[in-house]
Amino acid sequence: MTQGCKNAMEIWRELRDRGFAGTHRQVHRFVAEHRTRPTRRTARKWLVRPSSPAANTIALPSPQQLAWFLTQPVESSPPNATAAITRINQDPEAARFGALAQRFATLVGSCCVDGTPPADPAGELDFWLDAARLSNIPALKTFASGLERDRMAVRAAFTTSWSNGQAEGQISKLKMLKRTMYGRASFLLLRRRVLLKA
């Protein structure tokens, strides 16, 4: 292609003579992707399509990475996270979602992890729930209604310093042990494995 030949069949024949084992379709696809301008026989519907991707496009992170980026403080995020969040915030709905996710993560972190809780954590939670309901973002509305259904437990998590994390961890460990035995263990065998694992 650098020597000026744009015909995929000619390039394939030359490559085949040199030992290339692939098909002419593979070469045709490669040549079509790397053309800088359309050929004389290109159909009209393909002429409006840009021939090469923009050089300054930034690859979007995976959904898990994006969720992590949105819940972290902006000042501690890596440069690629800042670029991705800036790009995503160009959409008003995504910007609202990001702001609400950041606010909820900050509220949970200050109340439940190791921060200084706000003066009225229950009021802050109610304010966030109202904002999530009014956002017209289906995922946030569903999440807010789920928190609303379990309102007493969520309020207790935000206002007290107690946690059932240790018990939940032990339960998860027990479930994992049961899954490794495909749920067929008798109580005695399961008890023995739990005691040996501890």
UniProtKB/TrEMBL annotation:
Where would I find the Transposase IS204/IS1001/IS1096/IS1165 DDE domain in this sequence? 119-193
Q: What is this protein called?
A: Transposase IS204/IS1001/IS1096/IS1165 DDE domain-containing protein
Q: Does the keyword Cell cycle apply?
A: no
Provide the alphabetized UniProt keywords: Plasmid
| Lineage top rank: taxon | Bacteria
Q: Where are the transmembrane segments?
A: none
In this record, what's one Pfam family? Answer: DDE_Tnp_ISL3
Kindly indicate whether the keyword Cytoplasm belongs to this entry: no
